[in-house]
Amino acid sequence: MSISMLSNVFANTLATTVARLPLPAIWTTGSVQQRTLILGVSFAILSNVLFGVLYAYSSFLSPLSGTQVFIWRMLAMWAALVGYLMVSGRLELHIDKLKALKGVKQWVWLLLPTPIFLSQFWLFMWAPVNGQGVQTAMGYFLFPLMMVVFGCVLFGEKLSRLQWLAVAFAAVGVGSEIVRTQSVSWATLWVCGTYPVYYILRRLQGIGAVTGLLVDLSIFAPFALAYLFFFAPSSVVLVSGSGFFIMMLVGLGMLSVLAMKTNVDASQMLPVNMYGMMSYLEPALLFVLAITVLGNPFESAMIYSYGLIWLGIACLVAHGVKQLRQANSQTATSLEEQTDCL
Q1: Cis bond upstream, residue 63 (ω within 30)
Q2: Which of 44, 58, 49, 45 is nearest to 252 (CA)?
Q3: What is the distance between the alpha carbons of residues 326 and 308, in angstroms, rounded to a whole number?
Q4: DSSP codes, 4-16
Q5: What is the DSSP code (8-state) at residue 333?
Q6: What span, in angstroms and rounded, lies between the C-alpha atoms of 327 and 325?
């Protein structure tokens, strides 16, 4: 039996299993838009939790440095992604999408976000073990605000009152922290200033999450190998001679691919402002992990700033609950109308 046939059998089995699950009424009777919204929110929550796990992952890979962990992570992600696409029989599909690109302009447009992607992943692995965990988390707190701005300016999206209140609380909280410290870390500025550009470019390009990720990782893989063999050969000896490190890196690659895929999928399923607001879950987790697991310093004066930010998150939760109730109400009304027709 071929790999593609095995993939089809697995997909059919999964579909049959899902069909038998006691899913909420909104999933079986709601509109396509409602189901897409719920799936996008689910992907956003899952990706944020996975990114939180990955943030603390590098602390368990000592004595590898933050940069070395980043290099190994990129290679592990590339291997995990290519392996998944080969087993599922979808690698050729994504290659065909890339072959369809014509001209230098389309390729430049495709590769434009790649340096942003790589720099963000390096900072994500370097910051926790170099005392920049809290500052990086602050950048991720600012990131949703920037996404909201992009959504309003570029896509004409409107915010609800609760969303505006959440933005206001978060903006005041971040502003008070900047005033308190009289400075902004370069790590904070790099996260909030460049990461939104990556997601917006991928959204405008219409590039699928997996295709874009495959391009980013494939371009960097040769450079990663060259770095390991010419600048960090000791890490190659360490990893190749330890079953623990090999298993940890395999897990790092698999979790990274899943986290990135669900995150980009969520960014394409949800309105930009809603996706930006959901992204507050990640920095909240990163901040807690930076203080507890990674031991980054926390000053009592931060309570005011981060307290306001958490109030903003509470507004987002209230907004999400309100939207879910409205969706359930619409589903119930639709069911009643169908019953009346019968």
Answers
A1: yes
A2: 58
A3: 27
A4: HHHHHHHHHHHHH
A5: H
A6: 5
Predicted confidence (pLDDT) per residue in 227-256, tens digit: 999 998 988 998 888 888 889 888 888 888
Retrieve residue 67's tokens.
């940069």
Give the pLDDT score at 223: 93
Residue 202 · residue 113 · CB < 8 Å: yes
* pLDDT band per the 50, 70, 90 thresholds, residue 23: very low
Residue ranges of the alpha helices (H) in 206-242? 209-231, 233-240
**Confidence (pLDDT) at 334:** 60
Exposure letters 175-191 (e unless 16+ CB within 10 A, then b): ebbeeeeeebbebbebb
**Which pLDDT score is estimated for 52?**
82
The whole-angstrom separation of Cα 327 and Cα 29 is: 11
Closest CA to 267 of 147, 183, 125, 135: 147
Asked if residue 117 lies in contact with residue 256, where contact means CB atoms within 8 angstroms, the answer is no
Residues 270-307 pLDDT 10s: 876 677 667 677 777 777 777 776 666 667 777 787 78
User: Which residue's entry shows tokens 């089809």?
Assistant: 8
Neighbouring C-alpha atoms within 13 Å toward the C-beta of 27: 11
Does residue 197 contact residue 146 with C-beta atoms inside 8 Å?
Answer: no
| Secondary structure letter of residue 60 according to DSSP | G
Mean pLDDT across the stretch 130-142? 78
What is the amino acid identity at position 320?
G
pLDDT, position 226: 94
Give the C-alpha distances (Å, rounded to integers) separating 173 from 122, 131, 136, 142, 255: 27, 22, 16, 10, 32
User: What is the rounded average pLDDT of the residues 90-103?
Assistant: 83
Kindly report the pTM of this predicted structure. Answer: 0.66
Which tokens is 21 given?
């699950």
Residue pair 89/4 in contact (Cβ under 8 Å)? The answer is yes
